[in-house]
Specification:
- The chain has 365 residues and is α+β, with helices and mostly antiparallel strands.
- It has two domains: 252 residues, 3-Layer(aba) Sandwich (Aminopeptidase), CATH 3.40.630.10; 106 residues, 2-Layer Sandwich (Alpha-Beta Plaits).
- 31% of the residues lie in helices and 28% in strands.
- The protein contains nine helices and 18 strands.
- The strands form five sheets. The protein has a six-stranded mixed sheet, sandwiched between helices. It has a four-stranded antiparallel sheet with strand order 12-13-11-14, covered by helices on one side.
Length: 365
């Protein structure tokens, strides 16, 4: 039996009897902020190699595992980076706490354990590429952009929290706009408007632009939603400046590049730098993959339902490029994403593993 020595000195069993809860707990104990996923990726690659899979860390820093000898190629694309915030890893009752328990180490651990279960039970009827991607929480989406050019799958599942009995079909797009206005310093009693006032005008103009788009749009998925992410101002006695970062969640039909040009015009004469633009993406609910999830959830006693999320995920990166049936799936309540109370129900995590293992047994049909 081969064992992996973890960062805390614990030994993690990499044989057939790997415990699902211990596996996720070990992964949560490894910090992996965006851009700092190396240790977590190495841990995952070692675990997957221990299962006899072809596993490695790819040039983007993502943990990758390949298995299966025949059938359609299915990519299970999750992400292993997290936002900041230390949450002590612990089990309290049926809850496993830790940064990433929901978003999204929990879903990727579900991928690994479901693939292993389907393989051990002799039910795996497809070829699998598991990708624990880097920098999903950053504007770069480095791991997904790399994977986009490496695979041409017939089916894809994105690892994001949906709840064990829900299937996510689409995500809104995203754009980040970084504003900076600088001007000569002046006395506050003078006629020159202060740099922060110009920034406030820009923010008001952005809100008005979004309100015009949203008129008559009742569903959040159809609305253009702005958020003021950062504000700062200062000066050196000769010049004053104000900065802000505005995030926008984009509905279908809004082109990020065209919107960035509109925002630059609203900001003038201030500087505006846009990044992280990606359009909204939605997959139909009538695909064979969605049908397999519906049947698997019902087999576990659930009543399946479909979701469209107001956030953004790696589905926005690979979905348009691959053009295959695609859904997002994983245990956890997405309302806990990025919060100090992030946790996943252990029973839900185990049930999601059972659902996905069943899906992997169906996809060849």
């Amino acid at each position: 039996m081969v064992l992996y020595s973890g960062r805390d000195g614990a030994l993690w069993n990499r044989g057939p009897a790997v415990d699902e809860l211990e596996f996720l707990t070990a992964l949560l104990r490894i910090p992996s902020l965006s851009g700092q996923e190396g240790e977590a990726a190495a841990f995952l690659a070692a675990q997957m190699r221990g299962f006899g899979w072809d596993a490695f860390v790819d040039p983007s820093g993502s943990a990758v595992g390949h298995l299966g000898e025949s059938g359609p190629l299915v990519v299970l694309l999750g992400h292993i980076d997290t936002v900041p915030g230390l949450i002590p890893v612990r089990v309290e009752g049926d809850r496993l706490y830790g940064r990433g328990a929901v978003d999204a180490k929990g879903p990727f651990a579900t991928f690994v354990m479901a693939a292993r279960r389907a393989q051990l039970e002799g039910r795996l009827r497809c070829r699998l590429a598991l990708v624990g991607a880097t920098e999903e929480e950053a504007a770069s989406s480095r791991g997904a952009h790399h994977a986009k050019g490496q695979y041409a799958p017939q089916l894809c599942v994105i690892g994001e929290p949906s709840g064990w009995d829900r299937i996510t079909l689409g995500y809104k797009g995203r754009l980040l706009a970084h504003y900076r206005h600088a001007q000569p310093a002046a006395h506050s009693a003078g006629e020159l408007r202060a740099a922060p006032e110009h920034m406030a005008d820009f923010w008001a103009a952005v809100q008005a632009r979004c309100a015009a788009h949203n008129a008559g749009q009742e569903k959040l998925f159809a609305q253009l939603i702005p958020s003021l992410r950062r504000v700062a101002s200062g000066g050196d006695g000769l010049h004053d400046w104000a900065e802000s970062t505005v995030g926008l969640r984009l509905p279908e039909g809004v082109d990020p590049a065209a919107l960035a040009e509109e925002l630059a015009a609203l900001a003038a004469p201030a500087e505006l730098r846009a990044e992280g633009g990606c359009p909204a993406f939605r997959s139909p609910r009538t695909t064979p993959l969605a049908g397999a999830f519906v049947r698997a959830i019902r087999a576990q006693g659930g009543q399946p339902a479909f979701l469209h999320k107001t956030g953004t995920a790696d589905m926005n990166v690979v979905g348009p490029a691959w053009g295959c049936p695609i859904v997002a799936y994983g245990p956890g309540d997405s309302r806990l994403d990025h919060t100090p109370d992030e946790h996943v129900e252990v029973a839900e995590y185990r049930r999601a593993i059972a659902v996905l293992a069943d899906v992997l047994a169906q996809v060849a049909d």
